[in-house]
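Bit of a strange request maybe. I'm writing a small parser for structure token strings and I need a real example to test against, not something I typed by hand. Could someone generate the tokens for this chain?
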Amino acid sequence: MKKPSAKTYIRLILFVGTAISLFFVPWLLLIAWLQPLPTSLQSQLDLASDYGFDGAIAYIEQNGQTPIALTTGWHNREAKIPARPDALFKIASIAKLYDAVIVSKLVADKTLSLDKTLAEYTPEYASYIQNADQITLRHLVQHRSGIPDLMYTPNYFDNPPTTLAQGLALIQNIPPSFAPDEGYEYSNTNYWLISHLIEKVTGISKFEVIGQRLLIPFALEDTYDSIEQIDINRLMSGYYVGINEDIKTANYGSMIASIRDVGQFMRLLNSGDLFQSDEQAIYSSLYVYNHTGLLPGYQSIAHYFKDTDTVIVLFTNTTNFSGYNWNFAELMHSRLAKIYKNVSEEH
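Reply from user aminoacidic:
Good idea to test on real output. This should exercise your parser:
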């Protein structure tokens, strides 16, 4: 029998590799991506159910134009209450934008220093954090500290910590991802520490600082610190694939806001109206102007599009950390932006 040639082996490997890759292709996502772009924003948002979302809210505001708020699906699936534009939503990591603005303001008025280390600011927690004597506030804001993300520790969402000490204990024995300022890795632990620093230097809660510096001056009256502060019926229900019940009462410490408040905040942030004096220069050197948020039951995308001077915020209330829900949300957000750009150019 003739021995197979090297070329035959290569062809076999390529065939098997292609077959395997086709098996793992996210076909539903690919099909959705290839679908023709709908002609209307509402038609696109109504595809949310096809993407696996129980409900969605979109907010679109072009500078000088009346904001558009659209809804689809359910505010509460069990009670068959339709999605509502004034619903409250857990905005998760979008709140980091608010935190970074506050840091910039406190740095501008010399209450905080970007180059002061964690060991100097929080000696009581230095033993929890490797390289605490080298990690600065700047490293925390920019996710360049190397501190592991406590939210990726085992069973975090089953029994979330309620204090900074409990949170830091989860990562105490996990080695740093890299030496301070020698890499980038998004870590929620950084912003737990930032929240503590804000409260330590101001003597009041971080949310009180946000209220005094951002919410009250700019009439953002529909933003809250936690589920304890709200009418729970206004909070959009949250669902996780494989769990039948509404999980909105699970308290992971997220800020809560209406989509209108988040949209207005994004406009103020990107226009520079939130800042005074050199605050914006400090902020621009530290952090980003767009953000996303993800918690069990809640996904959010808040983005400013410079080419059209438009803010687009999308809330979707069904998650699956091991599925494609996040990819579908990003797809829907980007398609809403394209449709709006096409419509605005026609006019």
